[in-house]
Inverse folding.
């Protein structure tokens, strides 16, 4: 008989720790379908092999499912291929248990066939897992044909195959009671709790994995359900949140609905929260509504302000929109970060200088400067690069350029017009302005990579709470 216990493994060992939000949601869906989810959290384990062995021995599960949050740290200065350790965990689990091992999560869904092939796992789930994982487990228990399971990634005749995901509506899933994880512990060690109000992104930025990994159509959670989830987390002592949507303000009417629901429930005076957002559509009314509902900070994915670069990146905003958006937030009392993506196709020394100068003029509270664009599979940027010939012959590319045609390992684009010295040039342009978080590998104190960031971890241990960029901003003051 198929064991209904499913071992849900969190392999993410980045510090400060981020709660595996997907596992909390998956556990609810599995329990609703008659399975018994059991957590194996390797995040804080001193010896992950021993911890995984102990969990497998104690549970003897019917299946082992690992969530993949990150393939790598997406950071030019470090190029840490995180998935390499995750793949080692997959192989370890397969050696210790006869149970089928299943990969999933947003990081896996960036390149599901490539990641499954690299790790050697027998099965995976691409996209939303709440419906697909129980369906796959039902199929395996019945000895059925996994190719009929929407979202399934599997092997056939020595090749990795994929069945397209089915349409998924988060609102039709069981209530998110958030009772599976030790959310209070993650809050104490990680400084924030995570909540989704929607999934998917309909934009077409050339570098972005979100439409492929999360879906190109936005699926909305009912605002009252979001408020219920916040209340459930408050009951566990979590009162600072990051709303994990790709862009909170897409669509703006849903963003306002979430804000109204938080206020109606009387939660707004008890919480602080942060979001990612797009510079458009955004206005003074939305800024005020967000602030009234407890929003403390917004990280806007600006990427650039030079009009030529914005067109090349396929962004739909312009510098004046960024200026108006920052002012609207400042007037409402919301702290603002703008994230810049430098070195993309077409970048020049002149466009770099214009971008830095204009961000000084617009004057957000802080500016993140990412030098180099991670080239992920299944993005328009990756398709353009493939047309240019072998990776190792491309003068714009840096990182793992051989035996990496699937782009699973880190590869970064830096336009040859600005060259590999881009981080140092940007640091010189910033000139010590503390509002700019630079990315010079020789300047570790200015480094705002969140992966194994000891300054962040220490600040959180001492009581700091909030989005990591805001904690770093406060430390720099």
């Amino acid at each position: 008989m198929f064991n209904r216990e499913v071992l849900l493994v969190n392999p993410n060992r980045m510090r400060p720790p981020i709660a595996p939000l997907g596992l909390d949601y998956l556990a609810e869906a599995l329990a609703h379908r008659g399975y018994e989810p059991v957590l194996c959290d390797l995040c804080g384990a001193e010896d992950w092999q021993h911890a995984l062995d102990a969990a497998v021995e104690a549970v003897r599960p019917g299946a082992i499912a690992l969530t993949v949050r990150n393939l790598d740290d997406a950071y030019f200065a470090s190029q840490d291929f995180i998935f390499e350790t995750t793949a080692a965990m997959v192989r370890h689990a397969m050696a210790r248990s006869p149970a089928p091992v299943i990969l999933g999560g947003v990081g896996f869904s960036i390149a599901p066939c490539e990641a499954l092939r690299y790790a050697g796992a027998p099965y995976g789930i691409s996209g939303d897992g709440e419906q697909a994982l129980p369906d796959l487990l039902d199929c395996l228990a019945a000895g059925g044909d996994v190719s009929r399971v929407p979202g399934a990634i599997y092997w056939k005749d020595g090749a990795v195959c994929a069945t397209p995901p089915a349409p998924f509506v988060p609102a039709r899933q069981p209530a998110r009671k958030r009772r599976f994880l030790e959310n209070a512990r993650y809050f104490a060690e990680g400084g924030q709790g995570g909540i989704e109000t929607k999934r998917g992104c309909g934009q077409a930025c050339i570098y972005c994995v979100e439409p492929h990994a999360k879906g190109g159509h936005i699926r909305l959670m009912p605002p009252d359900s979001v408020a219920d989830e916040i209340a459930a987390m408050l009951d566990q002592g979590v009162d600072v949140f990051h709303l994990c949507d790709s862009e909170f303000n897409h669509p703006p009417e849903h963003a306002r609905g979430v804000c109204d629901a938080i206020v109606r429930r009387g939660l707004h005076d008890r919480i602080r929260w942060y979001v990612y957002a797009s510079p458009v559509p955004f206005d003074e009314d939305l800024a005020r509504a967000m602030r009234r509902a407890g929003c403390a900070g917004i990280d806007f994915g600006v990427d650039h302000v030079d009009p030529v670069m914005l067109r090349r990146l396929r962004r739909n905003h312009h510098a004046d929109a960024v200026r108006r958006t920052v002012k609207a937030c400042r007037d409402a009392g919301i702290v603002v970060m703008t994230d810049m993506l430098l070195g993309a196709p077409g970048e020049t020394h002149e466009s770099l200088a214009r971008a830095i100068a204009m961000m000084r003029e617009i004057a957000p509270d802080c500016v993140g400067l990412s030098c180099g664009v991670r080239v992920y599979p299944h993005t328009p940027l990756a398709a353009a690069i493939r047309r240019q010939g072998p990776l190792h012959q491309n003068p714009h590319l840096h990182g793992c350029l051989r035996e990496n045609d699937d782009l699973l390992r880190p590869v970064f684009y830096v336009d040859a017009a600005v060259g590999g010295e881009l981080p140092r040039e940007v640091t010189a342009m910033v000139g010590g302005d503390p509002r700019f978080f630079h990315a010079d590998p020789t300047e570790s104190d200015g480094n705002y990579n969140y992966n194994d960031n000891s300054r962040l971890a220490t600040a959180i241990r001492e009581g700091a709470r909030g989005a990591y960029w805001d904690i770093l901003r406060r430390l720099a003051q």
